[in-house]
């Protein structure tokens, strides 16, 4: 089974990692840990030409941090799945699109990702990556949610 684990470093993606780690999986299952860095759009930010190098450096730092995030997550999964069964990738682009493209190209049997649980106007303005992935995925999708404090099973 090919498991695409999409993470962003949030508590919601930590919950998704926990779910993948705690479950039994078929022998020889493969895990690809993916994170996506959104591209820099200086034209949208109204950046003056003198600020572009600073923004470019900030983008590089984001990419480097994303690389560390997926490498550390992959290392934590290797004890369960084995060194050869876990890989990782950082892609640049729109998050939903890159998750779907990776799921198609790899190919994934299951996509696992956390849900930020946004509602109302926040969901409308920011969109929902998990809903977009669920609606367009070429395979099964598991959206891991965190229960609010005080809520029981």
Summarize the structure.
The chain has 153 residues and is of the alpha/beta class. Helix content is 47%, strand content 20%.
Topology:
Elements: E1 2-6, H1 11-22, E2 30-37, H2 42-45, H3 52-81, E3 86-92, H4 95-105, E4 110-114, H5 120-126, H6 129-136, E5 140-144
Parallel strand pairs: 1-2, 1-4, 2-3, 4-5
Provide an overview of this structure.
This protein has one domain: HUPs (Rossmann fold). The chain has 153 residues and is of the alpha/beta class. Helix 1 links the parallel strand 1 and strand 2. Helices cover 47% and strands 20% of the residues. The chain is globular and about 55 Å long. About 3% of the residues have low confidence. It contains 6 helices and 5 strands, in the order βαβααβαβααβ.
Overall tally of domains: 1
Query: What is the second-level CATH architecture?
Result: 3-Layer(aba) Sandwich
In CATH, the homologous superfamily goes by the name: HUPs
How are strands sequenced across the largest beta sheet? Answer: 3-2-1-4-5
Q: Would you state the CATH class? A: Alpha Beta
Count of individual beta strands: 5
Helix content: 40-55%
Categorize the overall geometry: globular
Work out the helix count: 6
Structural class category: alpha/beta
- Unreliable spans: 122-126
Q: Whole-number radius of gyration?
A: 17 Å
- Mean pLDDT over the full residue set: 86
Order of helices and strands: EHEHHEHEHHE
Instruction: Fill in the CATH topology.
Output: Rossmann fold
Estimate what percentage of residues fall within beta strands: 15-25%
What does the largest sheet look like? Answer: 5 strands, parallel
């Amino acid at each position: 089974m090919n498991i695409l684990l999409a993470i962003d470093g949030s508590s919601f993606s930590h919950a998704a990692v926990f779910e993948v780690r705690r479950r039994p999986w078929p022998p020889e299952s493969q895990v690809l840990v993916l994170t996506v860095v959104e591209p820099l759009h200086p034209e949208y930010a109204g950046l003056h030409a003198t600020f572009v190098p600073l923004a470019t450096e900030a983008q590089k730092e984001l990419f480097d941090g994303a690389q560390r995030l997926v490498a550390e997550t992959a290392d934590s999964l290797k004890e369960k799945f084995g060194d050869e069964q876990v890989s990782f990738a950082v892609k640049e682009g729109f998050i939903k699109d890159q998750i779907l493209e990776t799921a198609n190209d790899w190919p994934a049997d299951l996509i696992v990702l956390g849900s930020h649980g946004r509602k109302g106007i926040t969901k409308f303005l920011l969109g929902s990556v998990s809903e977009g992935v669920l609606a367009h995925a070429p395979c099964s999708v598991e959206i891991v949610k965190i229960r609010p404090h005080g809520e029981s099973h």
